[in-house]
């Protein structure tokens, strides 16, 4: 097998989806620990805290109990290279999360055993379903009293409409937690509080009849387990790799992230069964990961990751070929050739210069305002990856400056912050207003805070008569011009310079659509 193919096939690129507090951060920490990426569990939190301390912006994040930053962590495990893409937790940042999910090949869903399926999990699941993303499930916090495992699986199947295939099964719960039984390996893994379990230092019994097991977990617990397993094996689905890869079935694991219990069983199964990078659709053709030439798309832009650098980083998912330092690539949107020098990866807590990166990997490109979300890079072929939309914002505010002399900084700040994708910035054709669109109210506070903190601009956001936005497209140049002239009052340019119709009301939009049948009013702007 060629080196390229081999490297591609051992990539596992995924994200964790969960409702806040289910244990995503804790589980991330433990996964990194197994990957040897960090020495001590707790470093992820530690890193978070250190960042909070060094940046006021992070202080806001902490104050609100939200995480708006997202990072990429790579670690080797059992001959595979695992890429874990972090997703922001707060509901207002759903669009960001959506785009991270376009860059992964599979997902891991974490559920709190006391809470079951929560609202945010449902939404994230809907997003995964759009691309039939394969999902594994980890039911967490088994060291606490929760709902019955059967009831939990039932809820997942009913609410999320996906088959459950339990791979591990809990023996007891809360204070009575004895361990988990692995249905496929036919092994009992004993739970011992306060220890970090690797395979080497866990107690494992082979099979339910193994000598000593009944003494260890108690005859009663063992009898209960047998009974439950009979029920489960009768009522649930056996693991079916194809159904999992098609997004129809989710393998389910039980454990306790904070106690590092059940996590390695999950990771072992994950690296074996989770999909390697797959072909991806573009505007012209499907791109296969094993192709020799580099292609990739930008799914996220993040500002000021390192307070010392105050730069912006564009995260690019590699879809085919190979990245090597200093190589040249075509930025398809601008038709410019750019040098991809010194790409970054984000291993554990420090940035490192990547030598070579393969399909499934994510690299960080330094961005001085020329890269946008959705940008495709290739080695010359003019194709663009599809399916990374910008949603029409639903809330609009006009930026009002307290110091009119800061107009230029304000425009720059708004444009740069909207590049990150959480907000969108519009300049009406007929006025000097600067209008910001967002999908959640919290984003206006975040932007105001950051404008002050990072650009020294004091500004407030006030009501403006816009209810929705539509991106305008028209194949007929003459009609397009006519439309533009007649509707200039309601037209604006977005940060990428695309024409947008800012509708003062739904009725107005409907009338405009009826009056101009040749014009397309698109609710999303596909980055192309
Ligand atoms: P996130 O918001 O999903 O990232 O959740 P965190 O990982 O920050 O966890 C939320 C809270 O649940 C924290 O206080 C964790 O210590 C706690 N937690 C995480 N995993 C477990 C677990 O297995 N058992 C118990 N009892 N608590 C847990």
TrEMBL record:
GO terms for biological process: regulation of translational termination. Residues 9-278 form the Tr-type G domain. The keyword Nucleotide-binding applies. It is found in: Cytoplasm. GTP binds at residues 18-25, 86-90, 140-143. Its main location: cytoplasm. One of its GO terms (molecular function) is GTPase activity. One of its GO terms (cellular component) is cytosol. SUPFAM superfamilies: EF-G C-terminal domain-like, P-loop containing nucleoside triphosphate hydrolases, Translation proteins. Gene3D superfamilies: P-loop containing nucleotide triphosphate hydrolases, Peptide chain release factor 3, domain III. Keywords: Cytoplasm, GTP-binding, Nucleotide-binding, Protein biosynthesis. Belongs to the TRAFAC class translation factor GTPase superfamily. Classic translation factor GTPase family. PrfC subfamily. Increases the formation of ribosomal termination complexes and stimulates activities of RF-1 and RF-2. It binds guanine nucleotides and has strong preference for UGA stop codons. It may interact directly with the ribosome. The stimulation of RF-1 and RF-2 is significantly reduced by GTP and GDP, but not by GMP. NCBIfam families: prfC, PRK00741.1, small_GTP. This is Peptide chain release factor 3. It comes from Mizugakiibacter sediminis. The gene is prfC.
